[in-house]
């Protein structure tokens, strides 16, 4: 009878009408017979409630509750979203409904690394992007109430429309105009970044308000045994100040010194690596942002970059861009998108350097500037070169900048007018110290027991920018609530991009803004990337880098020996009147370097924000019928677009458990393969100092400018190589030969 009762559809309903059953029992029976088969969220809530009631009846707590069960997956994900939006709101919900402890969610988030069977170093990055400041209602199905989402204060419970209206007009509630995203990246190929936090902020926050946010995330990860090895951000003044404060507040510092190639301590380089919660953490600036900063310094008319007897000019680069066979596009120098990664890569490419050397060999200021500041970002971005070569590039830049500053000091030229900007100089220091810091920490901390490769290009803000790009590909003007929803919805997109190992744009494209290349692993040799130079090696590399920097300075018409002491030795110096010919003035362009990363997307958001503000204002009175109707149409159109954005997000497919597990398995395989490749590294018993790095030293006597091109060809990225306008070398040789024949 019992079997009949259970298996015969409808028999139970005849013998026990639902009107006599409790609502919970009715729901449970409906879930069992398929009536509510599509409502997994409600089913998960009931299941969790039943287990909690059973545990309460037996006098035990919620410990060992199996939250991973598929039957409560949707309900658990909803709780996770609420926890992400506001831990405070989550605590209120947990008083009345079965819910994980906050510690459980923290363990689950950290568990994303454990799910990949990975316990090595990770890179932490953070960046901001603009939000459309707007209130959005969020209906909480558990509490049966609405929350207003959008303020930096967190979600706010509202009881009725009047209460919501009062909150919206209350100036004590400040809408978030930006969201600060924190991402973790396992610095190995084929692994997608993990978004760990998204915090609404305003435009006006300073370092005293922003630094605690970074500290909270960083300390929380370190305390949960997540081995954060680097903190990366873009080059703004505020972000660098946040990094500086993190270093100053560290419990201790590990000091690493590169000895001066000369007697004394004139060129000694000291690297201070903060030890935070017993972990060494290297502060890094994003190398792609740095490349654009160097480009913008060259293009700015606010300074004259005085390099010995020569100078670097924007007008030279503009002239080159319009010449036949140029590797640059016109858009690379006019109406420039200052966030265009491709344009910056083309400017500092080997082909551009070759073109200038062959066409304009007297433009030595431009040649040396493009060489030195093109090489430094590629110490991070190149996939093929050894870590010794990266260190040589960084130290060469360090010594060159020191000599440049010494030259300006002895010549009596103010750095504020004739040197790169203070921001660019600070970023340069971060890049130089970042290369050495990451190599030393990986060598001494993570590769001591077994070989572990350093893929240094993963230490940057690309994961954050990639996330923002995914979000804006769905909705350009997204709100805070949109952002939280899209974090879960775009996970598969980012995994796909990383697993395909493709850059996000055609390297030849123009004015496209960011081109995310951190997924590209072409040419990476895990065995070479797991080989680290010793301190003795680094001292030898420093001598080579110093000699090459001296040769570059000599090329500019300055005697290097005159720069290596602090006395006021007189120097024969050029004047700059001849440099300012053709009506050129130092302030010709007046580029504001503090705003160099303003984007077209920001402008679009400004328009959307302005429209939203205008439609909310109450002064639209005494308008003609025609104007009143037009204003109404704009309001309706704006509302329609808002609804369309919400529908777009709602229609995005959720990540199925089997798809997520498939992605994780691919990532586990990728991590395992790279670890195995690194372990194949043969033991090296030879004296490491005898191993050659690079091409050796340069001297003034045998310096050949073609060597600079060869170095750039060896060190530039694949994107720079493929992104040039033409293959000018062949056409250029033919053109020059024709000109010689005519002469």
UniProtKB/TrEMBL annotation:
Lineage top rank: taxon: Eukaryota
Region described as Disordered: spans on this chain: 666-698, 713-743
Biased composition (Basic and acidic residues): 666-679
Name of protein: Uncharacterized protein
Source organism of the structure: Hermanssonia centrifuga
